[in-house]
Amino acid sequence: MKFTINRAAFIGQLNNVLRAVSSKSTIPILTGLKLVVDNNEVVLTGSDADISIETTLSGADGQYQLTVEEPGAIVLPARFFSDIVKKLPDQQVTIAVTDGFQAQIMSGTAEFVINGQDANNYPHLPEIDTAASFEVAADLFADVIRQTQIAVSHQESRPILTGIHVSLADGILTAVATDSHRLSQRKVRLENVGERQVDVVIPGTSLTELSRMIGDVKDPVKIQVTDNQALFVFGNTRFYSRLLEGNYPDTSRLIPDTSETTVELDASAFLAAIERASLLSHQSRNNVVKLTVDPQAGLAKVSGNSADIGNVEENIATDRMEGSDLEISFNPDFMGDALKSFGQAKIILSFTTALRPFTLVPTEDSDQFVQLITPVRTY
User: Which residues form the DNA polymerase III beta sliding clamp C-terminal domain (predicted)?
Assistant: First the structure.
């Protein structure tokens, strides 16, 4: 095996594939990066058994300046190989495997020889038929993941909640996550999906890595689901993720359809006030901020206190308030995460009672996106 490639372009693709490689894998060969060279292309593969990423570097793409002299395959220690390539002196790098499983890495005046492994021992990626795939705009899908991943549970006691429930029915893609203290749900209408139906739970960690890769992708992401794997295809990259087993809880019944008190305000301004209040709440044992709403007086304020430090109180600018008086306490970190997901939008907070979960929705397309937070009992 021997090929020469533009080092900067090669590093860009190495970084993507390395997202799937763990230095602590229980399968030793998975700490390596698989390189397969054939037909004027280089295929890079990384995997940690949960996520697998395969990307193809084609000689037809001028940015790679790829020259293949001899086909072949090898598995190299991923992190070490990547660190070497990043520090090489020249714009081009040549990688050659001659005798056995040793790779020679040459660039300018530098030359490394590192030990590799037989590529035939590397686990095969799942065979997934992409003919029945459906497509989502990459930037839109990245937003869906970003807006729902905040509510993914990190407690392994309920593994199913560590994933995002993704379903497709009647042309509507729905993503839901909950850790039992908060919930995030986003809906998107898709075109040209026909009668296609999907109902899977994808690990939150997998989708977080995917969202980081597709944020700047211009082409749509093709999605295909099988019994235990999801495949996402974009550009020259294939991203595989295992699926979580089990039934995701029915979250639709958790979202209230009535409210006693509503407040309309600017999400970013409210976020700034919450962050100021949390400076003190983070110093207290319970980390709680209180919101007081008095629609008749046109008054809304947040307050927080720490027995050791002091207290804070701030009036909140609102566009509209309706309904009954309310005092409600909540975790400011949960509220901050929810508010960040709305960006600069105007939002509506809807409350039933001080002890029931409340919702945040945008003023536009309010049926497409909802964040739900369970309040904190303070007495």
Answer: 253-377
Question: Roughly what angle, to the nearest 10 degrees, separates helices 7-18 and 78-87?
Answer: 150
DSSP assignment letter at 123? P
The label of the residue with tokens 């999400």 reads: 267
CATH class of 255-373: alpha beta
Contact of 331 with 290, CB cutoff 8 Å: no
For residue range 41-79, what is the model confidence (pLDDT) as tens digits?
A: 999 999 998 999 999 999 999 999 999 999 999 999 999
Query: Is the pTM value of this prediction over 0.70?
Result: yes
2-121 with 132-242: one CATH topology? yes
**What is the DSSP code string of 5-29?**
EEHHHHHHHHHHHHTT--TT-SSGG
Collapsed DSSP state (helix, strand, coil) of residue 122: coil
CATH number among 3.10.300.10, 3.40.1160.10, 3.90.180.10, 3.10.150.10, domain 2-121: 3.10.150.10
Query: What is the spatial distance between Cα 262 and Cα 134, in angstroms, rounded to a whole number?
Result: 38
Closest by alpha carbon to 127, among 238, 208, 29?
238
**Angstrom distance (rounded) from CA 49 to CA 37:** 23
Check if the beta carbon of residue 19 is closer than 8 Å to that of residue 213: yes
Could you tell me how far CA 69 lies from the centroid of its own chain? 39
CA 326 – CA 355 distance, rounded (Å): 11
341 C-beta neighbours (distance < 10 Å), count: 23
Q: Are strands 320-323 and 310-315 parallel, antiparallel or unpaired?
A: unpaired
The secondary structure of 344-356 as a DSSP string is T-EEEEEES-TTS
Chain center to CA of 192: 25
Q: Write down the pLDDT at residue 189.
A: 94
Where along the chain do its domains lie? 2-121, 132-242, 255-373
Residues facing 13 on adjacent strands: none
d(CA 362, CA 377): 26
CATH of region 132-242, choose from 3.10.150.10, 3.30.750.24, 3.50.50.60, 3.40.50.2000: 3.10.150.10
